[in-house]
Amino acid sequence: MTDKAPYGFALGWEEWAALPALGLPALKIKVDTGAKTSALHAFDIEPFGKADTPKVRFNIHPVPGREDITISCSADVVDRREVTSSNGETELRYVIRTEIEIGDRYWPIEITLTNRTNMAYRMLLGRQAIQDDMIVQPTESFCQPERDDTVYFTSAIRHATPNRPLRIAVLSREPDNYTTRRLIDTGEARGHVVEVIDTTRCYMAINAMAPEIYYDGERLPRYDAVIPRIGASVTSYGTAVIRQFETIGTFCLNGSEGITKSRDKLQAHQVLARHRIGMPTTAFAASPKDTDNLIALAGQAPLIVKLLESTQGRGVVLAETKKAAQSVISAFRGLKANFLVQHFVKEAAGVDIRCVVIDGKVVAAIKRSASGGDFRSNLHLGGTASPVRITKFERETALRSAKAFGLRMAGVDLLRADDGPKVLEVNSSPGFEGAETATGKDLAGALFDVIEKRVRPAPARKSRTKSA
């Protein structure tokens, strides 16, 4: 500490300060005892959260004249007040409480948020924030140690974001199902605001200058992240909404391209084949004249005939004989439905492995067993789940599959065949209930770890230099 007065903590009319909880390690401020309240430069100010625990998000250019440096901040709202500025204008401002650091002193203060773009100082410290033992010396500058702005206001500041609350959207038409509730509860337990958005009620303004997304007549706010939980029946529209979020720069846990590829079963198998990932032999044809050749390509009966848009085991038929396969194929063609034919992995005996992959790691693996003699092991159809230990090859296959589709979160379904694991499906919106219940793993927590790491990156490591 370098106080210039022996009788108290000295402040000059300008000082270097830090607001660590807002991710601002260095800020040149003006100390003004003529102003009652403190003020911080803020733009894109946006309230969010619940009515009884309101929060506010805003951006700040911490260095005057450097609009290329933008810091995003979030804080709890403690009040909203009318403040009269020095030019006599009255403005209704949000008030936040945070900790300020000047020299070696830390203390909590209240700050109002306002746009100070044209001001020389990004923050004004008013007399309410000055403690009793502090002495303001109006003729002195920087009574406390200065901070090197060339160090703080470089790329390093971009990694100084604190653990601020995030505003996260879950795209789902089922707000009360297990997975959605887990996402809400886990996110809120971490201090975030999680909002469920019905995908089909979104609509978009598509233009080059200001692409926007609207919901129930109002423009959607800025979200830090979007978690897609799009049902198979609205894949096309849902991925269009995700593309719009991607266009405006929102972080989407799973991208539109990966979801689209995984939902189209024909394209999904082509992606797996391109990456040389094992799967049951699969055949596809459009002409009814090719039925026998189609069956021959997939192998001998029994065979699986599967609709391309099937989900949760529905639209999947086991044909025990060649004649049964011909009948099912004929029926599907009569409905003008797109389908594929697959080799039936008999040795799997109605059991498959669901590997939940999050951010390049298999965080849970369960064995799903069919019930009542059914060949389908889907939990929605009465199958049972139990934890399972997977092999290194199975783990690598699951990771390669998720990576092939560019999915940060995926449920990879495998069959244990005699010649190695075969991928049945890569699900871009896997449910958490079966895997969490069977393994006790916190999948929702692992998912939020990914979001926080992407949206709130950890501070960059300083490189070590050798001493001379």
UniProtKB/TrEMBL annotation:
PANTHER family: RIBOSOMAL PROTEIN BS6--L-GLUTAMATE LIGASE, RIBOSOMAL PROTEIN S6 MODIFICATION PROTEIN
Domain of life: Bacteria
Signal peptide as annotated in the record: none
PROSITE patterns referenced in this protein's UniProt entry, alphabetically: ATP_GRASP (PS50975)
GO MF terms, alphabetically ordered: ATP binding; metal ion binding; ribosomal S6-glutamic acid ligase activity
GO CC terms of this entry: cytoplasm
Family of the protein in this entry: In the C-terminal section; belongs to the RimK family.
Name of the protein described by the UniProt record: Probable alpha-L-glutamate ligase
UniProt keywords, alphabetically: ATP-binding, Ligase, Magnesium, Manganese, Metal-binding, Nucleotide-binding, Protein biosynthesis
Protein's GO biological process: SOS response; translation
Span of domain ATP-grasp: 269-452
A Pfam family assignment: RimK
NCBIfam families reported in the protein's UniProt record: PRK10446.1, rimK_fam
Cofactor(s) of this protein: Mn(2+); Mg(2+)
